[in-house]
Amino acid sequence: MASSEACNSTHEITELSSFSFSFSVIISLLTVATNLAVILSLLRKKNILRQSTFHKILLNIALADLLTGLISDPISISFHGKEMLRIPISSAETKTLHVTLFIINGASILTMVLLCIDRVIALKWPILYRNGLANRKCLLVLSSTWALSSVLVISYFEYGYIKYLAVFSTTAVATACVSLFMTIGIFRIHIFNKSSKLELNLFKNTKANNLENCGKENRIDNISSKENSSNDTQSNSSNCKDNIRTEIKRKKKLKIERSVNKSFINMLVVFLLSYLPACVMIAYMNTCDACNCILIHVARDLTYLIILSSAFFRPVNFIYRLKMIKVRIRLLR
């Protein structure tokens, strides 16, 4: 028995190394495939991408997750493959394994915060949101997530993997919880209550206008000639159709907004469900005084694999929830 820091960074548990190696191979292929599909579907809609801050943020998340599949996963495959074959692993390889994971996933988590801010602005200040953010400013903000993530990882070299992992996971979970509660609260208040009432009033007003126009048509038929009544009827009928089209457009916009917010909420829920078991294992690694090194190694590998797999679950959620991406992926086939 020893403290968690006293346990070696590698182990000789062949079954665990084989599992981590196999899992890394599978999750790498899935992560690259799903994120490439999301990125290609977004790039095919260049007009929407230029105008929409939401889709730019989405693209940044997908790029970060793609880099996880292209960089972090292959490093994990190499590391666990060497561990499985009992090939010596240098300290530099171990640090590269950890640093790449923290930088790329840190950028992805920080971008999720931007996505939360984007959703809050869209719900609270829709007029301001429609004006959007200038492309240069948006690029600067998104680049800052990578810069900040790279700066924060410096503390890893001072505190070590297990202690920094505790800070990283706790911050990530706390950020996700705040984002989740904030989004759900504003979503329920402004979408389900105010927007639903507004849509109901608009529908009632449209219906009343339609009835009034129909009554006018009947009175005109009784007073005016057939030619005049025919022209007025066509005019009123055209107004009715315009009102109906406007109503349909409003309902479509509301439906899209609900779908986008539900997608973000689902992403946060999946993120929390995957990170909470990791937090339990990280808490054990950081608090045990007489630790079982075998259990420490199992916890280390599992927490690492859980963080890696989050880069696969995010694009799956976007593909499932967002209609635009779903349609684009079908066309790519």
Automatic annotation (TrEMBL):
Domain G-protein coupled receptors family 1 profile: 34-318
InterPro entries: GPCR_Rhodpsn (IPR000276), GPCR_Rhodpsn_7TM (IPR017452)
Compartment(s) where it occurs, according to its Swiss-Prot or TrEMBL record: Cell membrane
Membrane topology note: Multi-pass membrane protein
Keyword match Glycoprotein: yes
Gene3D superfamilies: Rhodopsin 7-helix transmembrane proteins
Bilayer-spanning residue ranges: 20-43, 57-77, 97-117, 138-159, 165-187, 264-284, 304-322
CDD domains, sorted: 7tm_classA_rhodopsin-like
Any Pfam family matching the protein: 7tm_1
Keywords on record: Cell membrane, G-protein coupled receptor, Glycoprotein, Membrane, Receptor, Transducer, Transmembrane, Transmembrane helix
Signal peptide bounds: none
Protein's name according to its UniProt entry: Alpha-1B adrenergic receptor
Originating species: Hydra vulgaris
Highest classification ranks of the organism: Eukaryota, Metazoa, Cnidaria, Hydrozoa, Hydroidolina
